[in-house]
Design a protein that fits this description.
This protein is of the alpha/beta class and about 400 residues long. It has 2 domains: about 30-265, Type I PLP-dependent aspartate aminotransferase-like (Major domain) (Aspartate Aminotransferase, domain 2); about 270-390, Aspartate Aminotransferase, domain 1, CATH 3.90.1150.10. Helix content is about 35%, strand content about 15%. A hairpin with a 2-residue loop joins strand 10 (about 230) and strand 11 (about 235). It is globular, with a radius of gyration of 22 Å.
Length: about 400
């Protein structure tokens, strides 16, 4: 049901961006007052904080004891690229993609690494590829949650425990909101600015014992820049996984990540984080179920993300527009909400079908999403009126 009456209640926090995401509830700059500013990250205080970040990550994500966790440069992108350039090439690789970022990894492997034996297993926006086509005797690269399509794998059951290849998983919009099956994953990457609302520029790289074995027994034929190197003399550089970062991290960002991790632990850890994201996604799902103009981009309920919820237009007049017309309609709707100060950065990703993308991760308050819903109807009605007036 749409309305031309402007709602009265506004979200207390209008930040619904899919990255960088909303800060945790109650955050202020006071949370950063203990940051080790002006100090070396190699000094005891800096290294201790980096070690704490690693151990809290292990605790909250429930990472197995035998897995290494490292803080690396260049956000999730840097972590994924380190894995691709350091690990691939020992055997054939299956690249699995169903949205922009997964497709980007395909491009890197095919056009930059130029591997000879690459299979592409792909699907369009809103769908998962046929996961039964994956050959786990080969290495496999995939995203757990498609940030720009709102489509996720429902679980890790499609991955066999006795696989011969490595599984490399970009989990940046899934970590801390979805239960990752680490026993099925050999490389997991994410960034601080997603589900926990941390600051950008830092990535996390989690390696299984199998991934470490590959690093120590296989040397790629191409040169690796210093920023990608995980081994020295054929052995893993263990310091990277103990807080001895490859390059200089921002200790201000480290303090912010520690604050987010401690908040997550204080509310009940991973179970509580998942419950918050699920509750938020359920608010939008109920709204979509009753809406006459909005639908889920992800076609199957079991594959719908609980973080980056992507929505498409189902109103006949809007869906009848060509792609440029739908994009202009979406841009106008998003702009109206931005100007009203009730929702920032909720347009669909530039390469995705026109629509909305609303972040529902754990740092978003359910009450803010509930307050947003009438504004969505109001903004749609306003844009629809403008569309008819222009016809």
């Amino acid at each position: 049901m749409t309305t031309h009456t402007k709602p009265g209640l506004r979200p207390a926090n209008p930040n619904f961006s899919s990255g960088p995401c909303a800060k945790r509830p109650g955050w202020s700059v006071e949370a950063l007052k203990a940051a080790a500013l002006g100090r070396s990250h190699r000094a005891k205080i800096g290294k201790t904080k980096l070690e704490q970040a690693i151990e809290l990550t292990r605790d909250i994500l429930q990472v197995p004891a035998g897995y290494r966790i490292g803080i690396v440069p260049a956000s999730d992108t840097g972590a994924v690229e380190m894995a691709l350039w350091s690990l691939l090439g020992e055997r054939g690789v299956d690249m699995v993609a169903w949205e922009s970022f997964g497709s980007g990894w395909v491009t890197d492997v095919v056009k930059q690494l130029k591997l000879a034996d690459v299979r592409k297993i792909e699907a369009g926006y809103g769908e998962l590829p046929d996961l039964t086509k994956i050959d786990f005797d080969r290495d496999v690269v995939f995203t757990w949650n498609g940030t720009t399509s709102g489509v996720r794998v429902p679980n890790g059951n499609f991955i066999p425990a006795d696989r011969k290849g490595l599984t490399i998983c970009d989990a940046t919009s899934a970590a801390f909101a979805q239960r990752l099956d680490f026993e099925k994953l050999d490389v997991v990457t994410f960034s601080w600015q997603k589900v926990l609302g941390g600051e950008g520029a830092h990535g996390m790289l989690i390696l299984s014992p199998r991934a470490v074995e590959r690093l120590e027994t296989y040397k790629p034929s191409w040169p690796l820049p210093k920023i990608f190197r995980l081994t020295s003399g054929g052995k893993l550089i263990e310091g990277i996984f103990k807080g001895e970062t490859i390059n200089t991290p921002s200790m201000l960002c480290v303090e912010d990540y520690l604050d987010a991790l401690n908040w997550a632990k204080s509310i009940g850890g991973l179970d509580a984080l998942i419950a918050r994201a699920d509750a938020n996604a359920a608010v939008l799902d109920r709204f979509v179920g009753k809406s006459s103009w909005l639908g889920h981009l992800a076609t199957l309920p079991a594959t719908r993300s609980n973080t980056s919820v992507c929505l498409s237009f189902t109103d006949p007049d809007v869906s009848a527009l060509d792609a440029d017309g739908q994009a202009a309609f979406a841009k106008g709707l998003v702009s109206v909400l931005d100007k009203e100060g009730v929702a920032y950065d909720i347009g669909a990703y530039r390469d995705a079908p026109p629509g909305l993308r609303i972040w529902c991760g754990a740092t978003v308050e359910t009450s803010d999403l509930e307050a947003l819903l009438p504004w969505l109807d109001w903004a749609f009605a306003a844009q629809k009126a403008s569309l008819k007036a222009a016809a």
